[in-house]
Structures are given as C-alpha cells and as structure tokens.
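Ticket #307: bound-state structure for iron/sulfur cluster.
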Amino acid sequence: MKSPISSSQIKNKAIELGFHKVGIASVNGLDSATERLQAWLDKSYQANLGWMANPKRQDLKRVMAEVESVICLALNYYTPHQHSDNPEIGKISRYGWGRDYHKVMAKKLKALANWLQNQKEGILARYYVDTGPVPEKVLAEQAGLGWIAKNGNLITREYGSWVFLGEVLTNLKLISDRPHTQHCGSCTRCLEACPTDAITEPFVIDANFCIAYHTIENRDAELPQSIKSNLKGWVAGCDICQDVCPWNQRFAQETDIVEFHPYPGNLTPKLTELAQISEQEWAQKFTASALRRIKPEMLRRNACANL
Ligand code: SF4
Ligand code: SF4
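RESOLUTION: The complex was predicted; output attached.
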C-alpha cells in the first residue's frame, strides 16, 4: 500500500514516543541472513531454543502476509551501575536489572502502531518484542540501527549493544534505510573473553556453551560441568562479551527510562540467599521482571552451581 505519510514522519513520531533509535528495513535482501541462520541451525547451535528453528523466522511473509516494510526500534537500557566482584554475590545481566523490557517496549510499540493505523483506513501495523518469529537483529541491521557484531549482539554507534529491539510490521511501502556497515574490525576481545568458548568463530555463537543460554533457558536439574565450572558468579544471563567490547566501554550512556534503573536487590543478590529462594520470595522479588523466565528452581540451581 502506498504510504500517506513519509518515513521521516514515522521516525519523528517514534522519537516523540521515547524510542532512542528508529530505522526502516526493506523486507527484501534478507536472503544471506536466512542462509546464515540455516547454517547455524544445521550445527544445532540453537540448543533447546526451538523457536529459532521456526520456518516463519526465515520468511516474514509467513508472519504477516501483507508486510512491505518493517519499522525497527531500539531502547537504550544502560545504567552506570557495575557488577560486584565479591564472590558471595550473584551476577544478574543488565537486561534484567529493571522493569521487564517487554512491558516498557510493548507500550511504546502499541502507541506507534495505533498512531500509524489511524493515519488512513487499510493501514496494517503489527508490533513485536520477542513475541513472534521475527529476526530482530537482522532487521535492525538492515534498517541501519547498528551491526550484528562478532559476539552476536547488535551494536549501535550511540549506545553500544545495551539496547532492546522491537519491530512494527506494516503493509505500507516506505522508503527504507541503508543497512549498517560492520565495525568490529580486527578486534577479537569478546572471543578471547568468553569463559566457555561459546563464540566458536566471529559472529557464530554456540548456545550449547553459552552461560546466558544455560542460566536462562536450560531447564535441566543440573547444568553441564563445563558451564558450572566457568560461571564466574553469573546466575541470570552473562554480560562478559558485552562488557569487554570497546564500543560499549566508549559509547554506553545512561538511559533516560527510569523503569530500566535497577530494582533494589538485583545488583548485589547474595548467592546463599538465591540458592534457597522460595517460590513466594521469587514471586515477590521478580514482579514485572524479565527474570521471571528463570523459574525459582533454576535460580536455586544457578546459585548453587556458583557456590
Ligand atoms: S554471553 Fe557469556 S558465555 Fe555467552 S558468548 Fe557471551 S561471554 Fe560467552
Ligand atoms: S569486542 Fe570487538 S569483536 Fe567483539 S563485538 Fe565488540 S568490537 Fe566486535
């Protein structure tokens, strides 16, 4: 559908709604990313992340038949707090310190999608924040928000990789942005820093060896020994390959979204307390938190493995 409003009007609206970055991706030109995803799946590097193998992820038209453009959005979530080096304290990844980003992002995406649909009858706008088989990093790179880096994260020039991503799929034919260029250069800091060698080669992460995967997604009663002995205090996610990145060290800036500031208790949780957290304490401690994905028994398992 021909758009009654321009790409820049849409971008202005997104910024007005509080998004930190916005770009528009064309739905064409995703073929090489699709091939890379298939090669990754062929090696079973997705471990138990079943949704990564959803065939819809390789064809946006199967997610929304009418899609012509994707509006890609980013929210900076960095706060200047640091992880504790105290071996008695568990480490929680920055993404989980504050309010659940799905809630914060969805509210803004909904406002943008509604505004877009109200511009003219027939406009379709469907939003996603980890809520469907949408290749968010590939689209964000295509929309010029940043580049998919050697550690697998999307790095932006303005905020480093401390960004949450969301998308609005629309039937509008919009002028798209140019895909972002790659700026990892000859750096290999993330590959060297990963304690479990999960970055098997630049840009390729094997979830089977990733601490973030195991602490958040692995539901087994026990973690594999190779992970257990390299946890380095992490109980929820792992930020090592992002913390060492020079782009993050130079360009991270404090977010203006107060909901992303850490909840008390998420910065310095005691391992001994997490190791015996009850269902009730867990429910209270992690209200409106993305960490609710880590069930109490998983959190106890992760903390015990560190002790
Ligand atoms: S999140 Fe941690 S374990 Fe996973 S690739 Fe990065 S440094 Fe390695
Ligand atoms: S640490 Fe270096 S190689 Fe890794 S993502 Fe950052 S810039 Fe790229």
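RESOLUTION NOTES: The chain has twelve helices and ten strands.
TICKET STATUS: resolved
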